[in-house]
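ERR on first pass: missing label on line 2. Operator R.T. fixed the label and resubmitted. Corrected input:
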Amino acid sequence: MELSEAIEITRVRDAFMRKGPRPSQQGELCIFGHHLIFAPSGTETSKSGENPSEEFWILHRAIDRVLCEPVSKEYPSKGGLLALKCKNFLIIIFEVANLEHCKAAARSIEALSNLNGIVHDYPFFYQVPFNVLDDGWISFDVEQEFARLSLLTDAFRISRVNEHFSICPSYPTTVIVPKGIGDDYLRISATFREGGRFPVFCYYHNLTKSVIMRCGQPLIGPTNRRCREDEVIINSLLTISKGFIIDTRSKTVANAAKAKGGGTEPQGCYAQFRYVHCATPRIKEMHDALARMVEACNDGSVSTDKWLMRLSNSGWLQCISDCLNSAANVAQCVHCESNREVPVIVHGGEGTDTTLITTSLAQLILDSDARTIRGFESLIEREWITAGHPFRLRNAHGAFAAGLNTGQYESPVFLVFLDCVHQLLSQFPLTFEFTESFLIFLFEHAYASEFGSFLGNNEKEKFKNEVKKRTVSLWSYIHHPETLRQFINPLYDPRPKVLWPTVAPQSILIWERLFFRWQRDWAEIDGIRSSSEHWKLRERSLMSRAAVLRGVTIELSKEAANQNVNGVIGISQ
Amino acid sequence: MFTSPFCKEKAAGGEKWRRGDAMSHLLPSSSATYTEDITVVGSLLRDRIAGLYDSILGKESLMSGCGYGEDGRIAMMVPFCLGNKLVDKVQLVDRLGVEANLLGTVHVTTTHIIFRSEDGSKELWLATGLIASVERGSLSAAGCPLTIRCKHFQTISLLISRDKACQDLYETLLRCSKPINVNELLAFENRDSVEDARGWSRMDWGIEMSRQGVPPDTWVETDINSGFSSCDTYPERLWVPASASTATLIGSCRFRSRGRLPVLSYFHRQSEASLCRCAQPLTGFSARCVEDEKLMELIGKANPNSETLYLVDTRPRVNAMVNKVQGKGFEDERNYSNMRFHFFDIENIHVMRNSQAKLIEACTKTKNMTEYLKALESSGWLKHVRSILECSLFLAQSLTRGVSCVVHCSDGWDRTSQVVALSQLLLDPFFRTIHGFQVLIEKDWLGFGHKFDDRCGHVGALNDEASKEVSPVFSQFLDCVWQIMRQKPRAFQFNERYLIEMHEHVYSCQFGTFIGNCEKDRRDLHVSKRTKSLWTWMDARHDDYMNPYYSPTTFVALLDFDTRASRFVVWNMLYNRFDEGLLPRERVDEQTMTSIEHVGVLESHIAALRMRIAELKTQLGSSSTSSSAMLDSGLSSSGGNDDPLQRSGIERTTSFESGILDLNGYAEEVLTTRPLRWQPLRGATHCSSNQCRGEFPSVIDRRIHCHRCGLIFCRRCVRVTADERERVCEGCRIKE
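pass 2 clean. output:
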């Protein structure tokens, strides 16, 4: 199908933007293959100082839900209302003079924003307006990662057992596995794990020499299958301490999975591991929670009691606190269990969602490198993109969508992760090299982007569609110095230690900048931010200037002392 | 607590008292030889006394083996000291269960409860005035639990090994937390004779009214309440419409509950509208009062722009109706020609008391998110805060539009004080400064008779009657201020710490400022002579309260304050102040404040370096010439030609040279070795002084950097230098 087939109308004149990211404006809507463009008439002058005649562009992919209705039911001639609810929670409402045009536009946008597959996606057509200095596709590869790891320990090796994605479709071709284990064992283990996701290396904590591994659930099933090869792999991690298997499902959910062929590792076969359930919400719960949360936040007229009730009923904050809690538990197993060399295995059901939230958050808590921009990118690349989080499925729709276009696989799992990071960031605002706006930027790009990083569900799909050849990586854009500057937190002061976040209910805050982004004026908050930055930078520059002047002073005073001695000698002579 | 009392001082030979400022001037600084013995004895005694007071008032930490071990001395000093003063083998329980229990001793004095751990690692001081309740649990194997809940939301859980000791401590605490006579309050024990006049004259009605720009031809001061003759809960000086006769005023006074007639509180200069406050009228079902109606009319007429007057009753309509039965109630709109009536649903003190209790419950006991939000909802605290702010915003907007307002609730000293003060805070940037906020409190809270004694339960809340009078009205006001600050972080000169410390000292009773129910009470108790003012204490800490983001010229009125429900959040820093584990570990505002201070220090340091470099350069550049000059001069002097200029030149060079030699030492020592990087705020839990090592009691306590060594100290281990240009620690001062 060609994109142009979906476009019923390319131009809608007399559109009035009633609600949106800028003050109300008269203008014209243009529908292109990938973008919706609102071009203001340009005669009015806006008071806010923004250029009023500037066009407003939005990717069709970023639109979550399209609503169209007549302004008045009785008089269709009065025109129509076109409401666009976006995946970043922005709501735009246009008044269109001609109802038929309005309906046609709505159908076109609806069709374009719900295209299946990724071949028509914008990243394949996007021409980068900058020179790629630091190619994001090759910035973070397994070989480099392994090279770094091998400096710390030699307990692991690189395996190409998944060449051509033959064993596990959601893993990359190269993975890091325990050293003593041959590829044949991995192949057999893959048959015993959900989605072929055999145990792979995830994080090595050098302070305690503990290791985090992740995998899919074991396919025990109602018949209590065993897999000796899998047991060998898991048990090979043990050295001096007992290990942990962290299940991100609750006990009941895990037991229920058994009837469907999944289950939990039986204690008897993995005797040296303690089994711990860290219940995190299921993906469907996250999806519903987000929808309710956004709805509650968008209702400005609600009473205080209602507000708190809706907040509580949405369950979003509960999701966040559960996820942080399970990550903190993993971190505690790795760092605090007075023993050393503790192997921690993390899995949920498929090992592509809550497992990744848990392992990636645990790394942020444990590893100071992950709190830098580069480290955080690497974390997302390793733990989300190549680890096979199905971005295309999960992010096909956001909080607003309903109806036929939506399915059971949509879920804001990645956003839950980002919100958890935001909680860490607000508890430790000086410990992260990036700012809140970086997280929001990633959130938007995970849903709709001109870059290829979040395209497809896994490496296999990326490979099939030649994503890495034909699109630009998001990291290439971020690494561009001009972009990077926007995201650097000037107050960043590296803290080498492990962070211990609080997960108490009163310390989990609503991510205001995300949920109220389009409703509030952020000038105050930004002003504060920039004055903090100003003082910090000034402090830094004065410190270095003082250091330079000190050097000069020392030099000069030495010289002076010498000369003095000479001078005194001269006088005595 | 008086200051954060975690400073220990141990001299080499044993303990040494640090002199109180009060006593130091009595001591001869350099005594003649022959009186030495006498002086030493005298000064020792004085030192002891001063030190003892210091320690009682929390200025000085416990000394090992000092008074508390030797009970007699304390008993002698403090006549009404209670029976059991020392309970040992007490475990301090970590409420969050993160850390192990600490074993230590509890000391009880009339003024403080002190827990001191055996290893000396922790000292916890608590002014008795801050104790809200004491609960005893039943004896278990671990010991007998005792929970002390404080008015500043600290909860101290103790485990006491012996049941008898627990019971004793329990009874002692109950008694000393509830003094029966107001004269027993801690403030009257504070005899430190610091010059205090400034704090006690923070507010002058005449000056404040002229600052507001009250036009003398429409509003005048009346002497109707001189000697508190008409209304004992009002200030003596009142401002009323110039056209109102004394008869009108007296008539209105009789018609208002407790004689609280409508008087001016704030004049809005820009719109010439005025904000007046009063108590409810004694209307009952049908009573009227011509004088009161006349006074209202005159208040309306005092506004040249609009004669219409908004009469704001902050109570819900139902409550106002109920009051009619008791012969009170609200004005009948038909009898007041120029009036529009508005009800606002702000609940009464009893509702607020229960609401806050539930809020604290939610903040301290809930385990998961759903439970917490449910508890928060059922407490209704945010709802109440919102309704108060909505009413205040209405008043502020009306005044800006040029409509005068008269506000009352029942007696006009609780809800009225809240909304009147908040609306002024929204309107007038002066009240958003550190000084102005104190004036606002002096005027609308202390002046117009908010019953601090009763509401805070300073004295004898032993019976049910008195405990029903207790209500967190002022705390709620501070909470509202914080909600405004949260939205307008650049509009306030002060920061969160200012509000939190003020909140603590409203309850701590260490200062006389918040003692008494009204001005008359304070006059009768002679608080200004017998106690210290909180404002003086706060003046000394001025820089702790500075908001680094304050932008004094950007904001005038804050009328775009957003009152949507999602805007109101729980003030964790106040309600969970002592649960450090629950609060953010790093704070951007504190960091910025430190950066600003550091920038100042660095700038003067750089200036000093520049000067030094310039000196060195001239020296290096001129030294060759100067030495040749010397040679020249030597030659010329030998030639017998005494040139005064040249001689002075020689003198100058020599002195210059010797100066350089001194400066060389100075440069090595100070200019080039002082650490440029300051100790980071993060993780600074203890004072860096080796003598002190005191733990900061909560995250809110200011961490102060020494300008020389860059380490973090507590307030008592740093001093401002004599030239007031630097703040240095003890160690750096000695080095100098």
